[in-house]
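Hey Z.,

So I finally got round to the cytidine-5'-monophosphate thing we talked about over coffee. Here's the setup:
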Amino acid sequence: MSDDSRPSPSAGPSAARTAAVIPAAGRGVRLGPGAPKALRALNGTPMLIHAVRAMAASRAVSLVVVVAPPDGAAEVRSLLDAHALPERTDFLVVPGGQSRQESVKLGLDALPPGHDIVLVHDAARPLVPVDTVDAVIEAVRDGAPAVVPALPLADTVKQVEPAGTPGEPEPVVATPERALLRAVQTPQGFDRATLVRAHETVTGEVTDDAGMVEQLGLTVVAVPGHEEAFKVTRPLDLVLAEAVLARRRLNDGF
Ligand code: C5P
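And the result:
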């Protein structure tokens, strides 16, 4: 059922404009050998194109910046040219860096003025539904400096003392209360100035952008994520993604 009751974050004259940065420069080694992960096909279309369409599906998003593999910007540009994308959205391609963090920073540096809300979305999450994208934007518009879509965990999580050798038993040191934990997805949404400040001040390894905003001492809020926003990481995830697309085709057919 479509959620027509929720106000859509359409870009009115006074509404903040939203840009999406898509880091797509990773090799995706856990997926096995082959092309960079973002360029692998799902149902015949590169994962990156699915991710770009997922961002452009929101009427609030007027610009998508794709951060390409450092030596692959030209290839990504021709890929975007070769696929149908909404006319109301502009696209930019910039070369990425050695880490995800560096790639996001390079995408932010390329943003023209006039976009006050920034989404950061992994190319590896090609199937996030537009309602999730819109919910993140809405929460930033409502005043949160940083917003993450998040889901409760099915598995209990243990903290371990990592073994020196892979495969060796690892001592468990703690069991955080599962009800208080969330698995965090993308797009993560930010007030632009906050995200720029986070990338300029926070150093050290982080696995998501909201974590950098937390390090600034600001509040990050979580909104409900979606099971279809999963990250394509391992070979089995490709099978799941194809199944989700097949289900969508079936549902669209009726
Ligand atoms: O490796 P992981 O799955 O966490 O990567 C998340 C996202 O960050 C992917 O979309 C990947 O392409 C991107 N990335 C990047 N630049 C890097 C490494 C990862 O844009 N150097």
